[in-house]
Structures are given as C-alpha cells and as structure tokens.
Amino acid sequence: MNRPISDTEQRQPTYVVGRQVVAENCVGVVIAIPDPIAGELERWRASFGDPMAAIVPPHITLVTTTPASDWVSTIEHVREVAATQRPFTVTLKSTGTFRPLTPVVFINVTEGFDECVDLHGRLQAGPLERELDYPYHPHVTVAHDVSEANMDSAEIQLDDFEASFTVRTMGLYEHDVTGVWKLREELTFGQNPADGKEAEAGT
Fold first, then answer.
1. Distance between CA atoms of 98 and 100, rounded to whole angstroms?
2. Rounded-to-integer distance, Cα 170 and Cα 112, Å
3. pTM to 2 decimals?
4. Which of 9, 44, 99, 118 has the greatest number of C-beta atoms within 10 Å?
5. What are the CA-CA distances from residue 99 to residues 8, 133, 202 (Å)?
C-alpha cells in the first residue's frame, strides 16, 4: 500500500544530490537496488575511492533533481504513474561510462532498459516536466568524480558483473536546500493510489 514514510523509520534511506547544495526544494524518483546486490555494489564503489559510496545507496534514477512548485500535484502524478505500471525484471550487466562528458562509470541496465525509459517519460511530464541537460539513460553509478585510474579500474573490474532482480516499487523523494533526499512514499506498482488495491488492467 502506498503511504507516507516517517522520518523516524529505520529503513528510510537518504540520498545526497551529487556534491552540490541546491537552492530550492526538489523531487526525485528512483528504483532502489535490493540487497545483496546493493551491498556488493556499495563495497565496489567504496573500493574505487568514491566517498559517496557511504552516502548514496545504489539505485536507478527515474526522475533526476526536479524543482517541485506544486507538491500536491506532484504526488498525485507519481501515484497515477505507479498505479498503471506492472512489475518488471532488471538485469544489470557490464560497465559503461559517460566520460569525457561527465566523470562517471556505471553498470548498464540491459533487461528492463525500455521499461525504465518508458517510466521516466511518463514521470517527467505534467508537474515534473522540464528540459534535461542530457538524454535519459538508466544506469547504476559505481564511480563518480574519482581519479582517472580508479575510474579505469571500475570499468575493467566490473566488466563481467551481472545481476537481476524484480522491480515492484519506486521511491518518491524530496530534498531541501541541505541537499539530502528524504523518502516521502514508496509506491507499489499496479496499486490504486487511493486504497492500495490492485489497479484494473488498462487503467
């Protein structure tokens, strides 16, 4: 059932927006990577000297940092998208990089790539519509803004990485000017946002 998450709940993860502080409240939507896959990727990221490994849990971003001018409409919009989405499988396999544009090495999303792109397109609309700096490309970051040698190492050492899991939920996050994400709702796919019941097919 979709419900607000209390700040006091121990299972609440937090995320930091890159390495910068933002000037206004924003929204993000992510798919969390489950354990034990997440734990393995976190250890790898730390091994490459990335200090964000201890702060940013492994995830696939669906909506990147987007200003939230109308929070009520935003929540309703994200709930509606979740209600029409069915669970799907994600396979993470091998590595890629955004270098030289941005200093990032990542694990590829192979199976589930199209579903993530479709979800992104439906989410980044309405109250969350905005022009992005780069085309959307689902991935899981394993090294960001570390030395070239360590990024090379990440790209090579994780080239044979492969893991799969089923995606049944996505997290709606808010962050304030401190730059720390806080989970507002974990939304279950295929459920009516009003009562938590499974949505009718095609609605």
1. 6
2. 14
3. 0.82
4. 44
5. 39, 15, 41
Share of the chain above pLDDT 90, in %: 63
Distance, CA of 47 to chain centre: 22
DSSP secondary structure code for residue 86 in this structure: P
At a CB cut-off of 8 Å and minimum separation 6, what does 114 contact?
Answer: none
The size of the chain, in residues, is 203
For residue 111, give both structure tokens: 């199976």
Task: For residue 159, list its beta bridge partners.
Answer: none
pLDDT in tens, 78-115: 999 999 999 999 999 999 999 888 899 999 999 999 99
| β-pair type (88-97, 162-167) | antiparallel
Q: How confident is the model at residue 200 (pLDDT cuts 50, 70, 90)?
A: very low
SS3 helix, strand, coil % of the chain, rounded to 5? 25, 35, 40
- In angstroms, the CA 4 to CA 23 distance is 24
